[in-house]
Amino acid sequence: MKLANTKFKKRLLITGVVLLIIPALIIVFISPIAKYVVEKYSVKYTGRQIKMDWAYVNPFTGYIHFDKLKIYEDTSSTVFLSAEGLSVEFSLHKLLSKEYIITSVTLDRPIGIAIQKTKGAFNFNDIIEHFSSGPADSNSAPKPPLRLSILNIKIIDGIFYIHDTLMHINYFIKNFNFKSTGNRWDGDSFPGTFSFASGPDSGTIDGNFTFNTQNPGYHYEATAHKFSLAIIAQYLKQMTNYGTFSAYLDAHIETTGSFKDVADANTKGRIAISDFHFGKNKNEDYLSFDKFIMGITEVNPEKHLYHLDSIVLDHPYFKYEEYDDLDNIETMFGKNGANVTNVSADKTRFNLIIELGHYLVDISKNFFESVYKINTLALNSGNIQFNDFSNSEEFSVAANPLFITADSIQQDKGRILLSLKTGIKPYGNASVYASVNPRDSADFDVNFHLAKIPITQFNPYLISYTSFPMDRGTIDFNGVWKVRKGVIKSENHLLIIDPSISKRLKNKDNRWIPMWLVMYLIRDRGNVIDYEIPVTGNLKNPKFHLHDVIFSTLKNIFVKPPTTPYRIKVNTQERDIEKSLTLKWAMRQSSMLRNQEKFVEKIAKFLSENPAASIVVSPQHYALKEKEYILFFEAKKKYYLSLHAESAKPFSEDDSDYVDKMSVKDSLFVKYLNKHLNQSLLFTIQDKCSSLISPAFVNAKYSQLNEARQNTFLSFFKGKGIDSRITFSPSQNTIPYNGFSFYRITYKGELPDYLVNAYTKMGELDNENPREKYQKERGKLKMSEPLTKKPN
Fold it and tell me: Which of 254, 410, 588, 752 sits between 20 and 30 A of 709, alpha carbons compared?
C-alpha cells in the first residue's frame, strides 16, 4: 500500500511538471514564431513592414507584448512609428461566443513621424486606404456586425513629429499621454483624456473628449497653459522676406458639435494670447500686445448665435513706416502682399495662417449677419506709431496712450456707443465719440476733436513741399458728422492759432512755394487760420465745401491791408517777448541772426545796469533732429570728398554750402550708400547713413555744436563783469514744441522794462478785436502747453 502511494505521488508530480513545462514550452516557442509571422506577413496584411526586438505571447492569459516595435514607411527603410513596447490583452473566454474583446492596449513611449507631401497627402494615407472598407456588394447578404470591443487604451509619454516637405515645416509635441476606457461593440461612445507639451518650446495642452460612435456627435474640453505658438513663425516664413514671431496661448474651450457639419458646434470658454511679438527682428516689433482676451459665452454658427462676454486687448503696439519705395509691411510681405497672394494661390500647400485667415473672414461675415452680443469691448493703453522716411527728413507721430471702449454691443440694440481717447505724441490729444446703428453700418453719428497739436510737428512735409518750416502754431480741429443711409451731413472746424514761418531752407530735396504769400492770404488779422469745412454727399462720394476758405482768402486780400499797422504792432510785441525768453538755434548752426544778437545785447545791458538781477539759461536740445541733420551732412560730405579725392584743395565754406544743399535722395548718393552697407534690412536713408557714419562720430559733432553755441552766447557777456550772474542749468534732451533747439532764459530778481512793457502791450492787444475772439484758446495754450517734451 505504501509503495502504491509512492508511485501515485510520483506520477502526479511528473504530470504536474509536464503540465507546467508544456505551457512554458508553448510560450517559449510561440513567441519567436509570432515575431517571425508578424515580420514576414506584415506587409501583406498591413501594407507596412513591421519589426521588433522580441515578442512575448501567452495564449493562456491572452497577453501579447512586442518589444522595441518599429513600423516602417511604405516601401522605405525609414521608421514611421516606433515604441519601446506594445502590450495587448485579450479576453479568451469571449472568443467562444464570437465576441472579440481587447481588454487593454498600451503603447509605451512611441515616436511617430507624420510627413505632409502636398495638401492633404500624408505618409499614412496608404494605411487608411488599406484598412478602409470597400464598396458594399448590393447582391450579397448583409453581414452581421463585428462584435469587437477595444478597452483601456493607453499611450504613455509619446513624441510625435510633423514634417511638411513643401512648406519646410518641422514641429513636434512631446510627453503625449492618452487614456481611454475604450469602446464596446454595442456601446455608443468613445471617451478619452489627453495631454502633451510643445516639443521645441514651452507650454502644455490637456483635455478630454467623447465621440459618439452611433452618430457623428462629439464633445471635447481642452485647456492650454502658456502654450508657445512659435510654429506660426514657420508658416510666416513662407510669406515673409524676413521677420520674427512669438506668442503664447492660454485657453479653456468646451465644444459640443457634429462631424457632419462644421457649423453645427456650440462653443463656450475663454481664449487668451499673451506676449505677442511680430516684427523685423527680436529687438524691433511691428505688431505686439501684452494680452488679448476673448470670453465666449456661447457661439453657434449654425444657429447664427455669437454671444461674447468680452474682447479685451491690452497694450497693443503697431508701427507703420513709409520708405522711399515700399512700406515696412510690403518689404516684409512683398509689394501689395505679393508673397501672401502667391502662397494663398498654391492649392497644393497647406498654410496654417492662410487657413486661419479664411476662417476668420468667414466668421466675421457670419458675425454681422447673426444675433451677436459683446458685453465688454476695450483696447487699453495702445501705442500706434507712424514714421515716414519717404521725404528728406523723418516724420513721426504716435497715438499713445490709446483707449477704445464700447458699451454692450448687441445686434438688436438701439445704438452702440463707442469712445476713443488718445494722446498724440509728441504733443496733442484726440477724442472720438460715435453712435452706430448695429443693423446698418451706414447709419452713425461721430463727434471728434483734435487739440493742441503743434504745426511744427509737420515741418518735414512743409520743408519738403514748400522749403519753409514753421516755428509756431497750434492746430485745433473738431467736427460733428451725422450719416443716415450713407448720406453725410457734417460740420468741421479747423483753427490754427498763431502760425509763424521760419527762415527758408534751401536744399535740392525741397520744392518751393512762397509761404509768406500763402500765409498772407489764409491767415486773418488775429493771426489765426479759422475755417469751417462742411462735408455732404455720401460715403462713396463725399463733397468738401470750401466756400468759407475762398471767402476768408478774398476777405484777407481786401481787409488785411488797412490793419497792417495793428498786425505789425502785434508781431513786434510777440517777437520781443519770445526773444527775451528764448533763443532759437537753427539746425547745425552755432551763430545767431543779427536780430537775435540785438536781444542778447539787450540782456547784457540789463544785467550791467541791474547788479541784483541774474539769469538762468536752460538749454533745450532737439537731439533727435539735430543728430539727423549732422548725420546727413557728414554722409554727404564723405560722398563729396570721395568724388574729389584727387584734388588737394581743402574742404571750404563753399564746399560745405554745396554739401548742405545736396539732396539725400540723390540717386548717385544713394548708390554710394548702398555700396558701403555693412548689413542688410536697412530701408531708410537714416539707417544707410548710419552704416557709413558711426554714431560715436555723430555724437562727437553734436557735443561740439552745443559747446560752440554756449561759447557764442557767453561771448556777449564776457569782459563786462556780469559772467557770474549767468548760470547754465543742465541741458535737456527734448522734442521742442517750436520744432527747434533753443535756450530758455529765466530772470531772477527784477524783470527788464522792455519785457514788462511787451507783456503789458500784448495783454492789451489780446483784448482788442480781432484777437479778443481767440483769447480763451490762447489762454489755454499758454497755461497747458509746454515748450518742450522729453522723447519716449
Answer: 752
Residue holding cell 463656450?
Answer: 268
CB 771 within 8 A of CB 527: yes
* Owner of C-alpha cell 499611450: 155
pLDDT tens, residue by residue, 287-329: 999 999 999 999 998 888 889 999 999 999 999 999 988 999 9
- The answer to whether residues 93 and 61 touch, using CB atoms and an 8 Å cutoff, is no
Q: Is the peptide bond before 401 cis (omega within 30 degrees of 0)?
A: yes
C-alpha cell at 67: 518589444
The model's pTM is 0.85
User: Which three three-digit cell numbers place residue 603?
Assistant: 540782456
Separation of alpha carbons 742 and 456, rounded Å: 14
Cα diameter, the chain: 155
- What is the rounded distance in angstroms from the CA atom of residue 158 to the CA atom of residue 175? 5
Cβ distance 62 to 93 under 8 Å? Answer: no
- Cβ atoms of 759 and 600 closer than 8 Å: no
Among candidates 209, 158, 734, which has minimal Cα distance to 427? 734
CA 603 to CA 618: how far, in whole Å?
15
Phi and psi at residue 712, in whole multiples of 5°?
-65, -45
CA-CA-CA-CA torsion sign (347, 351, 354, 355): positive
8's enclosing H/E stretch is: helix 2-46
Letter for the amino acid at 348?
T
State whether residue 390 is helix, strand or coil: coil
- The single-letter DSSP state of residue 93 is G
pLDDT one-digit tens code per residue, 519-539 = 888 888 778 888 899 999 998
Residue 593, all three cell numbers: 541772426
Torsion of CA 64, 67, 68, 69, to 10 degrees: -20
Give buried/exposed letters for 224-261 (b at 16+ CB in 10 A, else e): bbebbbbbbbbbbbbbbeebbbbbbbbbbbbbbbeeee
Helix (H) or strand (E) holding 150: strand 148-164
Coil, helix or strand for 667?
A: helix
* Residue of 478, 475, 465 whose CA lies nearest to 512: 465
